Amino acid sequence: xxxxxxxxxxxxxxxxxxIALFEALGFERRHRVVATEDNGVEIIxxxxxxxxxxxVDVAQAPNLKQDLSLIRMNVPDFDxxxxxxxxxxxxxxxxxxxxxxxxxxxxxxxSPTGFAFDLCQHIKE
Length: 125
Known about the structure:
By secondary structure, this protein is an alpha+beta fold. The chain contains two helices and nine strands. Strands 1, 2, 3, 4, 5, 6, 7, 8 and 9 form a nine-stranded mixed sheet that branches. The protein is globular, with a radius of gyration of 14 Å.
């Protein structure tokens, strides 16, 4: 299985203080993506990078009760990675549903011990 990027993702109701913290640590905003779920809720994600080449993503989820820290794992073959993780006991946090947008397919996958990946495949147009 090929992995194209692997970095922390922080999901929070209020992303600006988190973004400001990482800016104070030397990270710069690289790009911003807005995805709309089927229920109409917008999820805004900001990708940040520091001079050392480290990345962190910060996503806003307005209905979230508590902040989450995940590992974002981007792959070129979503189905292969999904099968790899489920064969090792990972479960989809949304009952196996994926979030599919024009440019991204993703699913939060939770391990048997509780840590989680945000499994993503970027779709190039």
